[in-house]
Amino acid sequence: MTDTPATAVDATLRALLGDVLGLGEARAAALTADSGLFGELPEFDSMAVATVLTEMEDRLGILIDDDEVDGEIFETYGNLLAFSVRKVAG
Amino acid sequence: MSEHHLRIVPAGSARASVLFVPPLFEEANRTRRTLVLAMRALAAEGLAALLPDLPGQNESLVPLVEVDLARWRAALAETASKVSGPLIIASLRGGALIDHAAPAAAWWRLAPASGASLLRTLLRARVSADREAGIASSLASLEAEGAKAPLLLAGNLLSPAMIAGLGAAEVQAAEPLRSVALGADGIAGTPLWLRAEPGEDPDMAQAIAADIIAWSRSCGII
């Protein structure tokens, strides 16, 4: 997985957020690095956070430890993408 | 204690019956609406469709904390044994972890999930909710706690037996079995079981019914 390009991670992550939050293709595609997630999108509750983490593991082929998860990675789409790209790169 | 079940039957006599095993916990609520549409589509094709409440789920009066996977497997086996005529068992997600003990002519599974993955999501929801409340917990600390006493995970009070059973549960062999995923090669649709808000996918319901009918045909059941 070390050579997975950031664009593939980006596409996977948008599709995943679309699935979990029911954003629809247009809203998922319109997410920018500054788009707020947790605390901003009403659908993004603690259950959605948990579902997103487990789906990230399945779809990106990564393992996420508790201590890697802080409030910050769910603050914006940019933060979540950067975290994912870092994890996929190993 | 007997559980409610939803039954949708064709106008005439049924060619066969389909027993749906719903996903577990909150995932059941998120998919129920679309499952019912699939049941109606099956009935329109002459099949009876049955959606039972698992003990401790939906409208069941049994406290969830008294339930474990063995009890769900036994409840399904009992429900299946009361169906007359040929029976196809159709399971979604975690439902596939408890469907193999029931007597049936064929099995059909959509997007089967491992128990460990379902448990991990439930534990994470608790960690996330704890963090918001200013309480420090972790998957490991919750698992240790849940081995000794019931644990409240995303609104579900789960016994140590249920937690241990889920953590180890994998889908079991069944024969004949068709296992399908979402996507171009399987069922076209959306993973409604992941959805934070209720949704509906009528096209997916039709696809589910059509796939079950095709599988029943190829097994020589209808």
Give a concise summary.
Chain A is mainly alpha-helical. Helices cover 56% and strands 0% of the residues of chain A. In chain A, α1 runs antiparallel to α3.
Characterise this structure.
The complex is a heterodimer of chains A (90) and B (222). Chain A has helices at residues 6-21, 24-29, 46-60, 77-89. Helices cover 56% and strands 0% of the residues of chain A. Chain A starts with 5 loop residues before the first helix and ends with a helix. By secondary structure, chain A is mainly alpha-helical. By secondary structure, chain B is of the alpha/beta class. In chain B, strand 2, helix 1 and strand 3 form a beta-alpha-beta unit. The longest helix of chain B is centred in the first third of the chain and has 19 residues, at 26-44. Chain B is globular and about 55 Å long. The model of chain B has no long low-confidence stretch (mean pLDDT 96). The chains are: A mainly alpha (90), B alpha/beta (222). Chain A: Residues 7-88 form the Carrier domain. Chain A: It comes from Sphingopyxis flava. Chain A: This is Phosphopantetheine attachment site.
CATH topology of chain A: Non-ribosomal Peptide Synthetase Peptidyl Carrier Protein, Chain A
* Intertermini distance of chain B: 33 Å
Q: How many structural domains can be distinguished in the coordinates of chain B? A: 2
The CATH superfamily of the largest domain in chain B turns out to be: Alpha/Beta hydrolase fold, catalytic domain
CATH level 3 topology of the largest domain in chain B: Rossmann fold
| Percent range for β-strand residues of chain B | 15-25%
Unreliable segments of 5+ consecutive residues of chain B? none
Name the CATH class of chain A: Mainly Alpha
Question: Which runs of chain A of at least 5 residues are low in confidence (pLDDT < 50)?
Answer: none
Individual helix count of chain A: 4
How do the strands line up in the largest sheet of chain B? 1-3-2-4-5-8
Task: Give the fraction of residues assigned to helices of chain A.
Answer: 55-70%
CATH class of the largest domain in chain B: Alpha Beta
Instruction: Output the CATH homologous superfamily of chain A.
Output: ACP-like
Hey, roughly how much beta strand do the residues of chain A contain? under 5%
Helix-strand pattern of chain A: HHHH
How is the biggest beta sheet of chain A arranged?
none
CATH architecture of the largest domain in chain B: 3-Layer(aba) Sandwich
The gross shape of chain A turns out to be globular
Organism (chain A): Sphingopyxis flava
Protein name (chain A): Phosphopantetheine attachment site
InterPro entries (chain A): ACP-like_sf, PP-bd_ACP
Pfam family, one (chain A): PP-binding
